[in-house]
Amino acid sequence: MPESAAAQHGEMLCTLPGDDVRQIMWRYAGRFDLQMLVQSARQVARGTVARLVAEGARHSHDWTTAKDRMLKEFDEAGITAMFVDPEYGGYLEGPKNLAMALAAFELAWVDGGAATCALATGLALAPIHERGTEEQRRRYMSLAVPGGPGPGRPPWRGAFALTEPLPYVGVETGILGGKVRIADWPEGGEPILEVNKRGRFITNMAFANFVTAAVDSADPRIKGSCMVILEESDPGLFDRGAPARKLVHQLSATNDPILQLKVPASRIIGGYEVKHGVLVPRYSHGEIIEAVFRRTRVTVGLMTAAKLLSAIEPLIRYHRDRFRGSDAVPPGSPRYELGLQQREDVLYRVIDIWATGEAAASLGFAAARLFDILDPLEREKDATLAAQGIKGGTAAYKALRKRQKDALEFIELDARPQNRRDQARYEELKNDKVVQFLVLDALANVLCPAAKLWNTGHGANMLREAVSLMGGYGITEDCPGFLGHKWMDAQLEATYEGPEAVQRRQLSVTMTNEVFLAQFANWIREMRAVASKRPGTGACALATAMQLWLWTLRHLQKARDARGNKLLQGARQGVTFPLADALCWLVATRQQILDVLELEEKGPQNPAVAEGLEGTLQFFTDLAHTHVAKAAGEVGRICAELVFGYNRHPAWDDPEYRGCLTEDELVAVDSLVPGMSGYAADVVAADGAHPAKAGPCVEFDGYEDFQKMRVRLDACQTGAMLSKDRAAKALTKVMIPAALDYPQ
Amino acid sequence: MSNGYHIVVCAGIVPDPLQTLEPVTGPQGPALRNEMMLPAVLDPWAAHALYEAAHLARNAPGSKVWLVSLSPKAKLQQVMMTIAQKVPFELVALDGPASGFTDAGETAVALARAIQAIPGLDRSRLLVFGGWESASRGAGATLQMVGEILGITDQFQGVDALEIQSDGSFRILERIEGGVHQVSACAGPPAVLGWATGTLPEPPNQPQIGMQNMRAIMPALQGAQPAGLAGGKIEFLEVRIPSVRRETQVIKDLSPEEIAKEIVEWIKE
Ligand SMILES: Cc1cc2nc3c(=O)[nH]c(=O)nc-3n(C[C@H](O)[C@H](O)[C@H](O)COP(=O)(O)OP(=O)(O)OC[C@H]3O[C@@H](n4cnc5c(N)ncnc54)[C@H](O)[C@@H]3O)c2cc1C
Question: I want to staple A229 with a disulfide (CB 3.0 to 4.6 A). Which of A267, A286, A412, B89 is the partner?
């Protein structure tokens, strides 16, 4: 593979990537509203939040005055109001997914709990925002804005209560212990509901003014489940409950509340109808939480991404400075200048952490941006369907299914060059909101769980690496960058808002959607095209890994295990879950490569980025390549396990392997083709003796394509370690600030 | 003053002070290593001037604040993402080097021209604010020259306080040796004030103000013309970083007396 110009010139990363670079890669260079939000959130994070952590505020489970100060800082910095549309007093126009993602990223750069705390009211508001009635939206959104309506008024803070004391709501969110019944239904008036909900691990509960709670009907006059809004002044019991004794995220408040309250039926989120004397909520709790979590989970994934990237500067500084201050190590000596960076393993491991952080951030921000496009599209799709007389529920589902072939057609046309497709048809489908919704929705349904699952799960493992690279210091509270806290916190990020099993389960379904798979197939071509122009990115190897994954999926859809049971099915988590994991590696790494290409394209337009761009690009390209190698390794391993692992290994006494050559047969073969017997490995002697191994080797009948791809994938690793070498060298040269910009 | 002041704040940008600042010699003479790539902040002295200007404007209805900055516009844009959220102002941007190695005279000419070109600027209400020195170069020369070019002779440097008297005149406190101030009286605008730290804290970010400011700041940045500094008039014989290195240590619960003792010992060393 020819080396790029930068590689040949030895251009190196000059400084750690700054805002100018990130704005291009994560596509908000044109959004000054978001750039300002980033600066505001950063100031709170690296100021108040960092001081709180350094002062030991995490040592208490209680919501202290010191922690409460943080909320006021969020209010002033515009973080509290970022969820709210301008019509209700907010200041950010349009969808807020990327905004929330960026704010969470900045806060989690210092402390994940602070990020959770900042986002929890947004989570409480999300059911109202996504599915609430106009009156509900107006009331709670306006109340959540600091100072408005009414100057100096503290904003209302909310909590989202789904999880319940055992044995209910956990991964299986369908069964609810929380109940709602009708306490009073005055003639011709609005029913009064009695809500009984006990929560477990409810964030913000220590101070929430309102709660959005999931409950099930315990009354024949209410149909199904719903979500209701509870206010602290509602008649009844609003017991905030004891704080959870968390090991992590202590800058967020988590309690186990008991809520027994009477509220008007107008608090049912999304409203209700009365049919034959039965109150029918417009949305079940399941429909609402699905709409909520698919957005908010992306933000959680970005929190772990931020922590991975935040570890780089403290690690480089620690390694470089490791031996300074000793008389035996004079300034100017390699030991003084490079410290532990003289050791290859240290450099390689930091590169792995950095590459993971890049891929995680790229994936998370891509998902956030996608939801920003999808949000208005979803409303347009609803309007289009409504105009056709189709309202939500099963009718809408059926209508969308009918349009699936159009979505597939669009994806097919989209992949073709303009002169080789029916352009008029393409334009028609492109302007069709339902088709566009189907295409992007299928994508979002993969990217969201992938970002939550991979970023937090694999991210937690890599944060452990970061801690270990700091030696003993890493596991103390004095570790610069609070890496120990960040590692442990990542475990919560992997758990709340649906633990890894939930994300894997969702992926198991969404990854087999043909509308997604059609796009995935296009990505294989896309990555090959990228590779032909930018071979150093590793895009070619990634394309091969994608091919292998797709082959495996198609194979498993048909294949059965040795007992004759179907392999790819919901109950077979041993098959679907690893396949989902493998897919995450692929989508994350693809997005990482795409962000490097974006920087390459747009970087030269910004003079602050253009200077040193060659070195920056070379470094990011090398990071991508090393990450492709890791991804390809994971995908190869998982696919091989699944493809072969459910077959029974051939045995010497298998009837079908009786066909193994006997010694006599071997002689006969040799007489036909002299020397041929040398190629036969599995020979059984007349007395039944056989070579000392488990059985005859597995034959690849029907697996030839897989076998070829697998071998090719291994060979595709060529050059990856050269990239890693180059990236590692860049780590020894890159200029870092004189000190960390937040306390420790 | 019934219809307020026209306050023009001159402010450059400097690399974030936590960055590693390493002088190098480039094709155009001395520079800081990777300066374009380092995050920048508004020059801290000038930032104080801006906060004081906003404070004064808020208390004198009809006033208006401009921020005139000669800096690389791409970097200035980044700085604006924070500064624009602090106080209301209008930006006048000139694209050019903000480094400590540019000629203060040339910079002053460019700034003065930009000030003169501000539409509707009323000289009889004009206060030119800035830092009494810059974090990238402690010479304290630029603002004085800007005033001279504009023909403003009432100049004050190292200002910590500006008090408006009932007759509209100013009482100005300038820093002098030994922690004391020189107190001056000035009849009113036009005047040049080079601020030391002033007395105001950095205002918190206010996103609403930011959104309002940015609507005009973005076009100002996009339209920023090259300042046209020719350079080459100054010769630098030697450039070095100060020999004292920052030794940061975090010690919790130390009393003020103990801190003072440690500083005295350090000075004696
Ligand atoms: C600090 C903190 C804050 C939280 N904040 C909130 C909040 O604000 N609001 C709220 O409603 N909740 C909140 N939660 C609750 C959180 O969302 C739940 O803890 C989480 O969804 C997991 O539920 P569970 O603890 O009951 O785990 P369980 O359901 O008991 O699952 C335990 C493990 O079993 C396995 N498992 C379970 N079911 C399956 C399955 N079907 N397939 C495969 N594997 C399975 C998985 O490995 C899973 O991780 C919070 C939790 C914490 C710790």
Answer: A267
